[in-house]
Records
---
Amino acid sequence: MSQLRKDLISGRWVIIASERSKRPDDFRGAGEARTETADSFCPFCAGNESKTPPEVYALRREGTQPDQDGWSVRVVPNKFPALDRGEKTQRRQEGIFESMSGVGVHEVVIETPDHGLELSDVPLPHLRDVLETVRSRIISIEQEKQYQYVQVFKNKGRAAGASLSHPHSQIIATPIIPKRIKEELYSAERLFKKYQGCIFCRIIGQEMGLRQRIVYSDRHFCVLAPFASRFPFEMQVFPLRHSAHLADMTPEETESLAATLKSVLSKIKGLLSDPPYNLVLHQAPNPSLVQGDWPGMSKDYHWHMEIMPVLARVAGFELGTGFYINPVPPEAAAGFLLG
Amino acid sequence: MSQLRKDLISGRWVIIASERSKRPDDFRGAGEARTETADSFCPFCAGNESKTPPEVYALRREGTQPDQDGWSVRVVPNKFPALDRGEKTQRRQEGIFESMSGVGVHEVVIETPDHGLELSDVPLPHLRDVLETVRSRIISIEQEKQYQYVQVFKNKGRAAGASLSHPHSQIIATPIIPKRIKEELYSAERLFKKYQGCIFCRIIGQEMGLRQRIVYSDRHFCVLAPFASRFPFEMQVFPLRHSAHLADMTPEETESLAATLKSVLSKIKGLLSDPPYNLVLHQAPNPSLVQGDWPGMSKDYHWHMEIMPVLARVAGFELGTGFYINPVPPEAAAGFLLG
């Protein structure tokens, strides 16, 4: 089983994924570029259902059987999970260091049976189905009441960390709250007091008024290039209605989010030559766990997504100290994406 | 001039480097991989001194002139600086957002006149000269009393962010303290109180006793694979003597650091197929500025370097929420590097 380890100085948690760990010989030549060949065999394609662990959820044509063909969206446990379901996790002290067993959930959302159809290319109703599937899995995992936080993310392209090219997202549920989310929660609480209201709502209001960094907006969502963007063409997707959890979305809002994502993902694909990207959900911790020690989650926090293209020609970078250099002002990025 | 912008929620500062900014057409095709050809012309090579801004420091053979051949280590302002020297920086409010003009220093340390000679390959006395040069620049920039923090880092290889392959490091001095350093300072202060002593000294003591994660040690330095390593083969280089600033090093310690770096950089080059890497100095803020609002810097903090190889075959990655997955336990990494 994997291990969760806490960095004493930064408070950051790391999964040491021993299940994925390599033998010494795997390290030799580790610096060499991977050959970028097409996947010769894809376990996520229709017809290969037996090559994944048994599905935990799927949208299927009536009359079809689990782990058979006939699905449109399919969720399976990760075959090489970073974390595993198991006994309630216990903290362990190793000298001054803290660790715990790697108890958690690691699932893969296979977004379409069609290997070549990207999330930006699927029809809107299908994209809505993907979002409904993610929503359904979040609700189900949170009801297990063992995991403080459900992380949802999508790595597209090898340079963004994807090891398989078939369109998919990942869900990782952890017994602790990630560092950046914790910081955002505390910060949101502090800024709520300062501004007498949700700081995210306030930012959205200011940006919608200024219109300098807005990339997209409709009745329920807006997409903006953040004022202090770390990376060129970084984007944040916000629901206009204040809400701390993606799972709170109404069916109408889910439709709207599908249209929003289709629009911005198509734009970065078309205008930036189909770059690799990371998409990350930021939401409040598991609401089914009572956590007296966390800032008032639903009042202060506002869920959103971050989209970060990985761009070779205009890369921004981190100096290694939490300080970023970005060569593309967000106003220029928004202007370019608006066309 | 560039702009420094603060992210309201995270407190993170970003340099929006407009001097480096691109025209809209530069964005098209931004996702395409850069062609990895050898540099056809290198402004850092001996003989091309006129192609860089005038040098601010150099170690030269007696009788040679500035900006001529005859140097062994040379420091020049970055031709495309992220920050520029200028008027004292002023904070500006844009609605609820905070920014300031991009006043700062951005220099390049050209580590050798020889394009093909890496830092791990230069003779020990030369490596010591590079370190003495960095030390000298830090002291000089800190005496300007305008910059709260001096960042020193090395990106080797395109995948690590280097745009030129000639061996070089960079120095960026900023009017503010980077987020991660700030966090480390506060954390070090808090943990000093808890453990009645420097937490870094305590970690070094525990690790030197255990010997499970020590990659190298001599009379003055040790290198360890951190307990909660984010990346495979991540390393931290610590002086054994408690000190908050690299510039405090004695000549004997500088010799020792040169030998330490040569050992570990040669190891990752030889054993991991010459991977790209990032090397980052972590030290306390500028001691020549009196900063009443910062935790007792020299008592609590302990300077160190982080070395992060960029490894294609065993990549660790971040989930986008400050949570990392690392497939190589640091004990395995240390064992492998010890051979």
---
Amino acid sequence: MIGHVTEERIRVRYGETDMMGHAYYANYLYWLEQARGAWCRARGFTYKGLEESGFKLPVVEVWVKYRGEVKYDEWIVVRTWVSEIKRSSLKFEYEIVNGATGAVVTQAWTWHVLVGPEMKPVSIPPEERARMERDPAEWAAAD
Amino acid sequence: MIGHVTEERIRVRYGETDMMGHAYYANYLYWLEQARGAWCRARGFTYKGLEESGFKLPVVEVWVKYRGEVKYDEWIVVRTWVSEIKRSSLKFEYEIVNGATGAVVTQAWTWHVLVGPEMKPVSIPPEERARMERDPAEWAAAD
Amino acid sequence: MIGHVTEERIRVRYGETDMMGHAYYANYLYWLEQARGAWCRARGFTYKGLEESGFKLPVVEVWVKYRGEVKYDEWIVVRTWVSEIKRSSLKFEYEIVNGATGAVVTQAWTWHVLVGPEMKPVSIPPEERARMERDPAEWAAAD
Amino acid sequence: MIGHVTEERIRVRYGETDMMGHAYYANYLYWLEQARGAWCRARGFTYKGLEESGFKLPVVEVWVKYRGEVKYDEWIVVRTWVSEIKRSSLKFEYEIVNGATGAVVTQAWTWHVLVGPEMKPVSIPPEERARMERDPAEWAAAD
């Protein structure tokens, strides 16, 4: 399954670079998180709202392949989709593209588990699953 | 002197919060930096370009007054202006406004010194000063 | 009032630098926070314990003067003391010293307000005040 | 090949947590970096010195499996070893252990490529390789 792709544009901050002159490897994980927020929003809901309804979706595994440099003040585009949904977990995949050249500069995935208020895994409810499988083209984005 | 104000909208990231439930106090300084980048851009130049021409503008002093909570997923607007320009230094002032309510949630200022390649203070060249004093309304923004 | 000084040694991380080659200005605020934690610990309690007992001590104002460079892999020493205690607020002051040369590279202060579970200011209880005014030499440090 | 393990103790900062109440997933990557610095140091050299001699060792791939919660003020121990050295690349592996319980809370690995001043991959020189393969027990740690 390859879900619909959502794109999020992000400009690299000075404080996200390190003395090597490009973005520090940990900061990419902030961008993936921002992109997941946009992915929800494109499907008419927010991750904040998901938490307010009693769920959380912590990251349990992450993989990132840094293929090239990402530098200060550049626009990057994070392309995000869900590639797998299991009983209580799901996998996001990502491509980070240089906004100017279109070159893929990073590939990544993250696995998440849906947990309830006690931080225990719970089955993804049908209505949550339906939202995750939505075609954004058919939905108004959340604010 | 109160320079023209530039506004930058920023959405608060999950990773910018802490266990107290709102944005961690250090992360506001990233937002101020992003807002300074937007301030340059609105005047037709970029901070990146300034560095490429051999200058740097490090922060030498910062003050922030946190007036209220800033939370995950909220839009904030950072209003930025230059209030003072000396021989080799300048002062930025900021108001951070809650994007939904318009309430001022933070006030801040930063002092910066213009330094050359040796990291020694240098006089602000007239052409740099002119760019800093531009009315953005009369200039095309940099990309 | 100048309270007893507590020192905390910290080694600068690579990810705390930026492309200018030294520590990014926001990261100093993490070090101040770590130093406050050490300050509590030297007086036989922990900030974590303070939160567990229903209080929080958010930062409401910060000032930092960056006097010189702090670079990757250097040891810094954060010297921390409380200079003022009011009804529901207190002020920490800091000097950051280069661990190798002893030079003061940064000065800073932060104001904090004691709040209860509702995030409303509360009077500092006498027993909390007593802990804050302790002479660490007379107390076993918390683990 | 399983190289000698180096352990680095780190106390979790408040600013490293997020509103979920435990450490934000990106911050683990700072700890891995600090642990690699300690790994070098235990073998009598520093990563800083490696860069000063004209090399860099950027991360090209990272994988992290978050097995449990890491919370504010806890001691964690990062156990680090090199499991593979190729012509111009090497793999670090890590276990993050809760300092109080000894439970493994995270597993991770990172791949790095040795690059020269032009950021192009270079063969790992024999003397660098020898340092990487050292038994720390036979060397005085770098300061």
